[in-house]
Amino acid sequence: MLDQSFYTKTDEILSKYPAQERSLIPIIHEVQEAYNYVPLELLPYIAKHIGITETKAYSVASFYERFSFEPKGKYIIRVCDGTACHVRNSLPVLERLREELGLSSQKKTTDDMLFTVETVSCLGACSLAPALMVNDHVHPAMTPDKATEMLKTLREEDAKS
Amino acid sequence: MTERISSREQLNALRDKYTAAIEHEPVRILVCAGTGCQASGSLAVWEKMSELAAGTEVSVEFGAEIAHGKNFPAVHKSGCLGFCEQGPLVRIEPLGVLYTKVKPEDCEEIFDVTVRNKDIVHRLLYKNKITGEECFNQDEIPFYKGQTRVVLRTCGKIDPESIDEAIAAGEYQALAKALFTMSQEEVIKTVLDSKLRGRGGGGFVAGKKWQQVAGQPEKIRYIVCNGDEGDPGAFMDCSIMEGDPHRMIEGMIIAAYAVGAQEGYIYVRAEYPLAVKRLNLAIKQATERGLLGDNILGSGFSFRLNINRGAGAFVCGEGSALTASIEGKRGMPRVKPPRTVEQGLFGKPTVLNNVETYANVPQIILDGAEWYRSIGTENSPGTKTFALTGAVRNTGLVEVPFGITPRKIIFDIGGGIRNDKKFKAVQIGGPSGGCLTESQLDEPLDFDSVKKLGVIVGSGGLVVMDEDTCMVEVARFFMEFTHRESCGKCVPCREGTLRMLETLERIVAGQGEMKDIDELRTLADLIIHTALCGLGKSAPLPVVSTLNAFPEEYIAHIQDKKCPAHVCQKLKQYIIDEAKCRSCSKCARGCPVQAIDGKPKVPYVINQDKCIKCGACQSACPFKAIYVA
């Protein structure tokens, strides 16, 4: 059972949009932004409010790569594996991050919920390849060593906050 | 209080007022704040510049960013200047000087030397890589010399977060011209006569779409902008949305007027947060100014604009999938006809063009179809923006007239191949495209010519590959991408791409057989002819194109079990150079599968049968004695 606060927050989000099918994706975006993931329990609630079936809401939410039903870490690291990054060696950067954090293509989030590592098709920073994005901030011209350094900085930043 | 503009005269007066204000800025410092330069740290440079400007009396009170009274220099964030490789970029007007790779600690010197004394900080100028000459301004840099800027003409020169600057730069003039001096039919005719073709990949004549929508009996119509630039290796639309959002919005309003649409949607990738932010701001400002919403410029015409964010599905770049996504459904293509112009968004007639196409419209309305056709080639008029990336010296955003040769783009504008390597191929059109080889570099680049070479212009990604790139691995990479992004609705794409991917994975792992090549061709043929949507139909193209251009690389992987570019991990052979080995045993201790044997004073040897090609020995060796064959 989700805490009542989840529903209160969701009500707040729902009130911003017309109760129609077309509002579904923007609503899921906002829910994900609020919690870093989409709590599965909220989907029937949202579906009922905008007048669609639960299955439909689930089929949409599960279709889009960006929506996650699993909680994500505080820092979401999206390693770009677009063409430009790929030919400039983005894979070693990804491998280093996974190695340092004990993650894999299946296990994407650290147990302390600090980091999530995923790949993304293109960040649009191709001229500074290979690039990665931490939350909304793009880091250019990465190397495995710079990735290690970056994790250290993020950990320090977290310790301070 | 924002002034609402309710007539053409008022728009002109405002343009003149803002232009005068800009001219009064004694010094104008533009710090590039595109995604690339921000990533390189341009915001810190902007902050430092603003700080310095605040305390210095040389100029101004214009612009959203800084207003410190008279005689202070104005500091603005600008859109993408394109030369991302050299970022953060800082441009100082009226001198026109362009500084590259600027750091916050350089700002004081720039302020002292350039802002106060109108002199040059030579060490921050771009130096011509071949001649070594200093380039004082943009026009002297070879990267910019070969370009023709139509869509990007104001990008990088104005602050994209200020509608005042856009108005001063002449934006929304075309809208006023269309609304007050042209009929809807005349607007459509102008766009039709200009032969503007869709920049999203297909190259369909934009005016035809408009004409068809205008001719539908249904009166509720929509304008949709495809900003779901999903091709990996492409960021042109991103730069336009971030750097000059009003130009594109103006193009959409003109389209709406022409076809009689009441509402529009911009569909943007969620991976472009800065573009989303700036578009939202631009729409808000335009609405406050009366350039969007009810009774635009007092003309009686009304149009509303919404933004929808994508959610990481490549297939949503396909028209019918995109409209499904806006409707709140799974982004899956549907069978056509009916086409989007007949039954598009919410089942209504819809004009669907991409960002760059709309951004071309205002200038066509202002300067006419004939002017537009004077640029580019007869059947592909105008310019095209390309994202030039990969193994090229100058990476960045370029805009060139159609008909230019790939050689000019890569070697003149791009400065040739990085680290003096040899050119191998250039990948054009992303996962739906293919590669052009050395012998094709002098062919003209336009919609029809490249089609004859078996590739497409696509949205405009140009990824340059050098001798160190394995083309089989590149084909595998694209196939992995299209397979992952396949929506799963039709079998040829869902299953066909998987089978092709499995075959390619076998080949790069050294387990390929010669019959695999025939199988790849058969599957490709099948998918091309039977997949449901354009993305599926074009998914096999990177494989077909590399098979045609580099058959010897496939054969080397299959028959000789070798990767000529030494890229494919499983085909690498790690060998210890006897002359360099000091028998320190570090490699043997680092090997996870005990594949290395040796005794003191005798060179160590790798047992190739046991070796898993992980490369641990190579990184462990202090004498660089281990190489890859």
Task: Give a written overview of the molecule.
Helix content of chain A is 47%, strand content 11%. Chain A has 161 residues and is of the alpha+beta class. Chain A has two domains: 4-63, Orthogonal Bundle (Arc Repressor Mutant, subunit A), CATH 1.10.10; 75-160, Glutaredoxin, CATH 3.40.30. In chain A, α1 runs parallel beside α3. With 629 residues, chain B is an alpha/beta fold. Chain B has five domains: 20-141, 3-Layer(aba) Sandwich (Glutaredoxin), CATH 3.40.30; 171-373, Rossmann fold; 383-466, Ubiquitin-like (UB roll) (Roll), CATH 3.10.20.600; 471-558, NADH-ubiquinone oxidoreductase 51kDa subunit, iron-sulphur binding domain (de novo design (two linked rop proteins)); 572-628, Alpha-Beta Plaits, CATH 3.30.70.20. Chain B has a five-stranded mixed sheet with strand order 12-11-15-13-14, sandwiched between helices. In chain B, strands 2-1-3-4 form a four-stranded mixed sheet, covered by helices on one side. In chain B, α19 crosses α21. The interface between A and B is large, with 43 and 56 residues.
In short:
The complex is a heterodimer of chains A (161) and B (629). Chain A has 161 residues and is an alpha+beta fold.
Task: Please give the structural blueprint.
The complex is a heterodimer of chains A (161) and B (629).
Chain A: H1 4-14, H2 24-35, H3 42-50, H4 54-63, E1 75-80, H5 83-87, H6 91-101, E2 115-120, E3 132-134, E4 137-139, H7 144-160
Parallel strand pairs in A: 1-2
Antiparallel strand pairs in A: 1-3, 3-4
Chain B: H1 8-24, E1 28-32, H2 35-39, H3 42-54, E2 74-78, E3 90-93, E4 97-99, H4 107-116, E5 126-127, E6 134-135, H5 142-145, H6 163-168, H7 173-181, H8 184-194, H9 206-214, E7 222-227, H10 236-243, H11 245-259, E8 263-268, H12 273-288, E9 304-309, H13 319-326, E10 350-354, H14 355-373, E11 383-390, E12 396-401, H15 406-413, E13 423-428, E14 434-437, H16 447-452, E15 461-466, H17 471-485, H18 491-508, H19 515-530, H20 534-538, H21 541-549, H22 551-558, E16 574-576, H23 586-590, E17 596-597, E18 605-606, H24 616-620, E19 626-628
Parallel strand pairs in B: 1-2, 7-8, 7-10, 8-9, 11-15
Antiparallel strand pairs in B: 1-3, 3-4, 5-6, 11-12, 13-14, 13-15, 16-19, 17-18
Helix pairs in contact in B: 7-11, 7-14, 8-9, 8-11, 8-14, 10-12, 11-14, 17-18, 17-21, 18-19, 19-21
